[in-house]
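Chapter summary example.
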Amino acid sequence: MIVTSLFALTCLTIIALAIGRLIWSKKASKQRAIMGISGIILFIELIKITQQHRGMHSGFLNGNLEFETKLINLKSNITTLYTNLLEFESEHAYPPSLSTHYPYKQWQRLIENDTLKSADSFQLHSGLIARQLDAMWDMSDEFSLTSNHQEHIQNLAQQLVKTLPELAESLGQVRALSVQVASKQEMSADKKLQLLFTLGKIEEHHRRLTTPLPDSTNERLINFIQEIKESINHSTLYNQNPDAIFQEATQVIDEIFVFILAGFDSLKTTIKDVKILF
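The structure predicted for these 278 residues follows.
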């Protein structure tokens, strides 16, 4: 009888410990996902202003000297964001193999190269941003956002970490290429093809959105794409004001990033509201 009671007590203790460990694990995962959003938001801002640096740098190298002061400010802001991201990684025991240290080194090599041509600058910036996007996805996965066991959280995180940033990045590429063409007042055949291809990517990302953009942003996006397409088809893009193109594209891109940040606020609330069950 005593042996049976001890055995039953042991079994109950093991079950209770297992349930306690499961609850603790789910709570820890939930808290880590919420903390991860802070790092992802730093990445979002970093990608946004790296895109701006690409567009202005392309124009500057093609003779638009008005961008010079703005480039100095952007360079300082980008370096600060890398510092903040590295501090975030250090505070949260982030795996060194996934560290922002690697795109940061890539950024340093880019800005230290003073012999770049406009096309080289565009390619190096775009390669860097692609690496930033990959690193942001890794961080989202590591902090249980895109890898969350709750499907609705996982799907929302994927839109915020992949689909929307890739839409903004394609727009950023069109901005940089258009500023190049308008600053140089010349559009080569390869630039035309590159622009049309990237405009097609924008339309593809746009179709894949499961949460629609606000009506005003959606309208501005569609109008901007149409304007660039028409100016390419009518060979008038190189006659346009590069600063005006930059500002128009930037307004749309900034609104998309505002939408992303609002989405992360909503995602944080959704994660907090998840009930811990066993």
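To summarize the output: DSSP finds eight helices and no strands in the chain.
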